Amino acid sequence: MADTRTKLLEAALETLRKQGIAGVSARTIAAEAGVNQALVFYHFGSVDQLLGAAIEHGSQQRIALYRERFAAVGTLRELLDLGRSLHTEERAAGSVAALAQVLAGGQTDPKLAPATTVGLNLWIAEVEQALSRVLAASPLVEFVDVGGLAKATAAAFVGLELYEGVDAEGAGQALDALEDLAVLVSALEDMGPLVRRAVRARLRRTQDHS
Amino acid sequence: MADTRTKLLEAALETLRKQGIAGVSARTIAAEAGVNQALVFYHFGSVDQLLGAAIEHGSQQRIALYRERFAAVGTLRELLDLGRSLHTEERAAGSVAALAQVLAGGQTDPKLAPATTVGLNLWIAEVEQALSRVLAASPLVEFVDVGGLAKATAAAFVGLELYEGVDAEGAGQALDALEDLAVLVSALEDMGPLVRRAVRARLRRTQDHS
DNA sequence: GTCTATACTGTGATAGAC
DNA sequence: GTCTATCACAGTATAGAC
Fold first, then answer.
1. Boundaries of domain holding B129
2. Name one Pfam family in it (chains A, B) (predicted).
């Protein structure tokens, strides 16, 4: 049996998932946790602070669950497979759905923004490590900032998860297209030197034009 | 001077942007419109239905504003430039921010989901047209579904806009990385036949392995 | 630490005057 | 079409009994 603090943290995540950012309140969270509403303020001071703590708590827990699978990734193909099952698993019961909700809330509530960034960065760090391993042999690393690419990947991932929530079929098509795109990137690795030369030529030409 | 219906539609968008999905209510919207709260229910039946109508209204208006610029896009470089200024313009005063909020709300409120899809599809259609023009000469069209790619692009775009709302610097890095990636795709066009051959070889090999 | 009780404000929605 | 008035309920937050 978990203590009340932990029960509230977990109930906050569950409520974010089931009711969304518009549906969370001290009352709904406390009801989910099976405790009194006043304890939210006793333990966390305000609903916002509870949400912030919950996101950090949840992301850390959830990432620990995926860490081994991230570490096992060696190719782009494997990274994509992990991304797709992560997408499926997280949407239903994970913390990315909750993260997406505070991300939306953080747009207008400055108190939520820092916690959201912390939660996102935990994922980004994991993606960046996997990406730099996967792309080590690729001509891409020469031209693209892997840190930035990891951030873009994480942001796009959240966007796709939200998209899936309102149009599952459309999201499926989007994911399929991205997989096709990945085959192309794999092909680039087979022709590394050629690509490098072409990109350099392209960069020169672009600079001349400007 | 606009009629009350229109004032409510526009006020709903403005409230979504300024207060987020968690902050919209018949009262906040009516206050923004400068009319009485009861008129929300008289004209739209419920807050949800007003939000749905507002998203559709806003997306259509906003896209009309961008239509010429979408039509003028002929290269990937131009599409990226449009995407970046669209990103900047929409975040501050546009309808994508509002769309992102109902997208988050639609995860848990089934009544919001259809309207969100309609709004998103308006953007997706525009992106798809531009993409198919831009990629016409690229070897990509042979291997990647452009419709799916447009959906992925729109979803990623919304994700990046939300990301920007909580971490502007990180979002900037993400966008920069995506631009670098685009140079690579441009380079591919310069070597179309070669790439086509490499991808086909890669596809054959992948099939053998499975 | 946890509960009850309470204050005050916000919310969706309706009835009815104008 | 627009307003005022009103309803019953949900929201944050605090004080104080246990």
1. 48-209
2. TetR_N
pLDDT score for B210 = 55
User: In the numeric block, which tokens belong to residue B59?
Assistant: 């997306």
Token pair of B39, please?
Answer: 């008129």
The CA-based diameter of chain A, rounded to the nearest angstrom, is 68
Give the span between the Cα atoms of A195 and A193, in whole angstroms.
5
The CA distance from A98 to A90, in Å, is 9
How many structural domains does chain B have?
A: 1
- Look at phi and psi of residue A35 and say left if phi exceeds 0, alpha if psi is from -120 to 50, else beta: beta
Domain annotation covers residue B9:
no
- Is residue A181, in this structure, part of any structural domain at all? yes
Distance, in Å, from the CA atom of A177 to the CA atom of A186, rounded to the nearest integer, reads 15
DSSP result, B7-38: HHHHHHHHHHHHH-TTT--HHHHHHHHTS-TH
Answer whether any strand D atom is within 7 A of the Cβ of A8.
no
pLDDT band of B120, cuts 50, 70, 90: very high
pLDDT band at A194 (very low <50, low <70, confident <90, very high): confident
Residue A36 (CA) to nucleotide D2 (C1'), in angstroms, measures 43
User: CA of B33: how far to CAs of B15, B26, B29, in Å?
Assistant: 10, 10, 6
Q: Is the CB of A41 under 7 A from strand D?
A: yes
Q: The CATH number of the domain where A137 resides is what?
A: 1.10.357
Is B157 inside a domain boundary? yes
A125 is written with which tokens? Answer: 């760090």
Query: Is strand C in 7 Å reach of the CB of A31?
Result: no
Query: Do the domain assignments include residue B40?
Result: no
Average pLDDT of the residues in B30-41: 98
Facing A105 at nearest CB: one of B22, B140, B160: B22
Q: Which nucleotides of D are covered by protein (CB under 7 A)?
A: 1-5, 10-16
Please tell me the distance from the alpha carbon of residue B201 to that of residue B198, in angstroms, as a whole number.
Answer: 5
> Which residue type, as a one-letter code, is found at position A174?
A
Whether B39 and B30 have beta carbons less than 8 Å apart is answered as yes
If phi > 0 it is left, if psi is from -120 to 50 it is alpha, else beta; for residue B110 that is alpha
Answer with the residue of higher pLDDT: A194 or A125.
Answer: A125
Cβ distance of B140 and A181 shorter than 8 Å: yes
Could you report the per-residue pLDDT of A114-127, keeping only the tens digit for each? 999 999 999 999 99
* Residue type at position A60: Q
Contact of A93 with chain B, judged by CB distance below 8 Å, is answered with no
